[in-house]
Amino acid sequence: MANEKMQHTTTGEKIDDVRTKAEELTKEAAETIKEETKKNVESSKKALNSVSGSAENMVKDKPFVSIGCAFVAGVVLAKLLK
Predict the structure, then answer these.
(1) With the C-alpha atoms ordered 50, 55, 56, 61, is the resulting torsion angle positive or negative?
(2) Per-residue pLDDT tens over the stretch 10-57
(3) Cα 20–Cα 25–Cα 29 angle in degrees, nearest 5
(4) Handedness of CA 4, 8, 14, 18 (dihedral sign)
(5) How distant is the alpha carbon of residue 76 from its chain centre?
(6) Which residues contact 58 (CB under 8 A, 6 or more apart)?
(7) Residue 13: how many CB atoms within 10 A of its CB?
(8) Helix axes of 2-61 and 63-81: crossing angle, nearest 10 degrees
Protein backbone atom coordinates (compact mmCIF):
# COMPACT_ATOMS: atom_id res chain seq x y z
CA MET A 1 0.00 0.00 0.00
CA ALA A 2 2.84 2.39 0.82
CA ASN A 3 4.38 1.47 -2.50
CA GLU A 4 1.14 2.36 -4.31
CA LYS A 5 1.02 5.78 -2.59
CA MET A 6 4.61 6.39 -3.54
CA GLN A 7 3.88 5.49 -7.16
CA HIS A 8 0.86 7.80 -7.22
CA THR A 9 2.90 10.60 -5.70
CA THR A 10 5.69 9.99 -8.17
CA THR A 11 3.21 9.83 -11.04
CA GLY A 12 1.50 13.00 -9.81
CA GLU A 13 4.84 14.74 -9.55
CA LYS A 14 5.72 13.61 -13.07
CA ILE A 15 2.44 14.97 -14.36
CA ASP A 16 3.09 18.29 -12.60
CA ASP A 17 6.61 18.41 -14.07
CA VAL A 18 5.30 17.72 -17.57
CA ARG A 19 2.57 20.33 -17.15
CA THR A 20 5.11 22.91 -15.96
CA LYS A 21 7.47 22.17 -18.85
CA ALA A 22 4.60 22.35 -21.32
CA GLU A 23 3.54 25.73 -19.92
CA GLU A 24 7.11 27.04 -20.17
CA LEU A 25 7.50 25.82 -23.74
CA THR A 26 4.14 27.28 -24.71
CA LYS A 27 5.09 30.67 -23.24
CA GLU A 28 8.43 30.58 -25.07
CA ALA A 29 6.75 29.66 -28.35
CA ALA A 30 4.17 32.42 -27.94
CA GLU A 31 6.91 34.96 -27.22
CA THR A 32 8.89 33.84 -30.27
CA ILE A 33 5.81 34.07 -32.48
CA LYS A 34 5.06 37.54 -31.10
CA GLU A 35 8.59 38.76 -31.84
CA GLU A 36 8.59 37.30 -35.36
CA THR A 37 5.19 38.84 -36.06
CA LYS A 38 6.43 42.25 -34.94
CA LYS A 39 9.44 41.93 -37.25
CA ASN A 40 7.23 40.89 -40.16
CA VAL A 41 4.80 43.75 -39.56
CA GLU A 42 7.62 46.29 -39.48
CA SER A 43 9.12 44.84 -42.65
CA SER A 44 5.74 44.91 -44.37
CA LYS A 45 5.18 48.53 -43.33
CA LYS A 46 8.52 49.55 -44.81
CA ALA A 47 7.80 47.71 -48.07
CA LEU A 48 4.31 49.24 -48.30
CA ASN A 49 5.66 52.73 -47.71
CA SER A 50 8.26 52.18 -50.42
CA VAL A 51 5.69 50.96 -52.95
CA SER A 52 3.32 53.76 -52.01
CA GLY A 53 6.05 56.34 -52.51
CA SER A 54 6.95 54.87 -55.90
CA ALA A 55 3.33 54.96 -57.04
CA GLU A 56 2.95 58.53 -55.82
CA ASN A 57 6.05 59.59 -57.72
CA MET A 58 4.82 57.88 -60.87
CA VAL A 59 1.48 59.69 -60.67
CA LYS A 60 3.28 63.01 -60.13
CA ASP A 61 5.66 62.39 -63.04
CA LYS A 62 3.00 61.20 -65.51
CA PRO A 63 -0.42 62.48 -64.46
CA PHE A 64 -2.11 61.96 -67.85
CA VAL A 65 -0.95 58.34 -68.10
CA SER A 66 -2.27 57.77 -64.57
CA ILE A 67 -5.66 59.27 -65.47
CA GLY A 68 -5.76 57.13 -68.63
CA CYS A 69 -4.98 53.98 -66.68
CA ALA A 70 -7.67 54.79 -64.13
CA PHE A 71 -10.19 55.38 -66.94
CA VAL A 72 -9.33 52.08 -68.66
CA ALA A 73 -9.53 50.22 -65.35
CA GLY A 74 -12.95 51.78 -64.71
CA VAL A 75 -14.21 50.75 -68.15
CA VAL A 76 -12.95 47.18 -67.70
CA LEU A 77 -14.55 46.89 -64.26
CA ALA A 78 -17.82 48.29 -65.59
CA LYS A 79 -17.83 45.68 -68.37
CA LEU A 80 -17.04 42.88 -65.93
CA LEU A 81 -19.79 43.89 -63.50
CA LYS A 82 -22.53 44.00 -66.17
Answers:
(1) positive
(2) 888 888 899 999 999 999 999 999 999 999 999 999 999 999 999 889
(3) 150
(4) positive
(5) 33
(6) 66
(7) 10
(8) 120
